[in-house]
Structures are given as structure tokens and as C-alpha cells.
Amino acid sequence: MIEVKARAPKDTAEKFAALGGNAVKMSKSSKIQVLVMLLFVMAVQILALAITPAISASGNRVFEDPASISNPFAYLFLILVFTGLLLLAIRLKKGKVVGGFIFLSVAASIYYVIVAFISPLLALMPTLAIMLLLRFYPEWYIIDAFGILVCAGISSLFGVSMTILPALLLLVVLAVYDAISVYKTRHMVSLAEGVIKIKAPLLFVVPKSRDYSFRKDQAISTSPGAKERGAFFLGLGDAVIPTILVISASWSFPALGQGLNLPVIGAMLGTYLGFLILMTTSRDRPQAGLPFLNSGVILGFLAGCLAAGVRPF
User: Fold this and answer.
1) How crowded is the C-beta side of 145, counted as CA atoms within 13 Å?
2) Around Cβ 160, how many Cβ atoms within 10 Å?
3) Number of domains in the chain
4) Nearest one of 109, 79, 291 to 201, comparing CA atoms
5) Full residue range of the structural domain in which residue 243 is found
6) 118 located within any domain
7) Is 173's pLDDT higher than 80?
8) Phi, psi of 207 (to 5 degrees)
9) Residues 148, 44: contact at Cβ < 8 Å?
10) Residue 128, CB half-sphere, CA atoms under 13 Å: how many?
11) Which of 24, 97, 99, 256 is the most exposed place for a label (fewest CB within 10 A)?
């Protein structure tokens, strides 16, 4: 939900984000990386739609009552607690504590997704294997593959756990929170730096060159004179949050699935449009991305409902 801008030459756009990070100035040379990031978002949504029937059939739900209006605020509360603990650990210079807390959270997310397909005991093995790989070999392609899979799983889990109205409310609340945390309190800027420094698997990594290695990347500061980073970073939240509405729409209007599910298609296209607008917006300070992405997916969803002649709620 944040974007941090590193110092870079005038002919270069340096983008780096974590926990939902977003775009900054985009040069001509960065268009390929932007396209790759867009493809990551598309892959997450397509995969999430593909696995949703299995996750829905498993009966796993994040919230007991999918129609409850309190669900978005419970989600926000969890984010605030998670963010607060991480910021406290970073302020106290407890890097190992931050890393351990993040990896435990990631492991729980992976396990919760995998257990929807296999038994709880068997789910422990692939969860452990993935966590060992991320811990001891966090190269960019490993993190990207993990990011697509876990984003699809988490999006599907939350999507089937909320009906349309709570999902819409969640996106609005998070868009407002993202704007406040970037433009007002700016606490997400500090959090992003800390998360990237310990190489936590909370982002997509798109290298600028073939010889780039995320494991060896030591450019971690956004202060003046900092070394230019060798990759673009996109926070996983940018893929997860809009996709929640896509999944909610897919199971809220199952009858439309026999043909073109226009609310789902509209939500997906709206996400991509919001992403592209975000990437072409240039400012001299960090930008909040969820206002762009969430606005796009919401407007696209509503346009799809209008085209299909269905009431969204």
C-alpha cells in the first residue's frame, strides 16, 4: 500500500514498493518492466479464478459471516496491528524479529491456502519446503513465482469470505488508509524500507538487467546519494486487494458464469486500467496506489453489472 521513490538520474525511473507498493515516474526504458508487473497482476487474477471453485468447496472462510459489514473493519484492524508490530521492531532495530514475524505470517498464509486442496498433515510438507526455499535462496524468480501463487490463494480465500457489499467497503476503506499512510503519516515509507532490507517475500521483483540478483542487492536506502536499485518492486497488496472484488463477483453471480460474466470481466479490466493510469502518473513524492487500483476495479465492476443488467447488491 505504499510506494517509495529512490533517488535516480533524470533519465531513469526508480520504483520501489512494499506491502502494496505502487508507481512513480516511468521512463521509456521502464515500459517493459511495467508490462511485466501488469502481467503479474493479470496472472494472479486468472489463477485466483481458476482455484476459487476448489477453495469454495473446501468450506474454508476467513470470516464466519460473508455478508457482515464488520468484515472490512476486522481486516483493517489486522493490518494496523501487523503494521504497528513491524514498525516497533524496526524502530528498535530488531531485524531478526521483523523477519521472523513476517516469515511466520507468510508460512501461515501458504498453509491456509494449501490445506484447501490436501489434508492438513500433508499440507505441512509443501509449506515447509516453500519457506526453506524463500529463506535460503530468495532469488527474484523464486519470489515472483511464490508471489503469484500466494496472491491468488489469499485473494480467493478473502473473495469467497465476503459478499459484494463488504468487499466494496473493504476496497474503499483500504484506499483511504493507503492515502493517509503515504501522504499524511508516511509510516508506510519506513515500513517499506525495513521490509525490503531484510528481503521479505512481500513483493514482486522485476530486474532491470539479466545479471541482477535480488539476493546480492545491497541498495536498500532511499536517502540522497543512495545507490540506484537494479530492479522494480511491486507490493503483493496491489495484486491481492483488487482481486478480492473479482473473486467476490465471480461467486456472487454464479449464473453468469455459463457465459460472459460481465461484472467479473469489468472488474478485471478496471484493475488493469487503474494500474496503467497509476504507472503513467508522475509526481515528486511517494504515491498511494490503492486509490487508483481500487477505483478502477470498482468502476469496472459496476460497469459490468450495468452491462449485464444485474443489481450489484
Assistant:
1) 9
2) 27
3) 1
4) 109
5) 2-308
6) yes
7) yes
8) -65, 150
9) yes
10) 6
11) 97
Task: Categorize the per-residue pLDDT at 25 as very low, low, confident or very high, splitting at 50, 70 and 90.
Answer: very low
What is the pTM for the complete model shown? 0.85
Backbone angles phi, psi at 106, to 5 degrees: -65, -40
Strand partners, 295: none
- Asked if residue 313 is part of any domain, the answer here is no
> Around Cβ 271, how many Cβ atoms within 10 Å?
30
Joined together, the cell numbers standing for residue 180 give 493517509
Cell for 197? 532490507
> 19 is written with which cell numbers?
506491502
Grid cell locating 46? 486468472
Task: Tell whether 274 is covered by a domain.
Answer: yes
Query: How much is the pLDDT for 32?
Result: 86
pLDDT in tens, 240-284: 999 999 999 998 887 665 567 899 999 999 999 999 998 887 555
- The three-state secondary structure class of 218 is coil
Q: How confident is the model at residue 313 (pLDDT cuts 50, 70, 90)?
A: confident
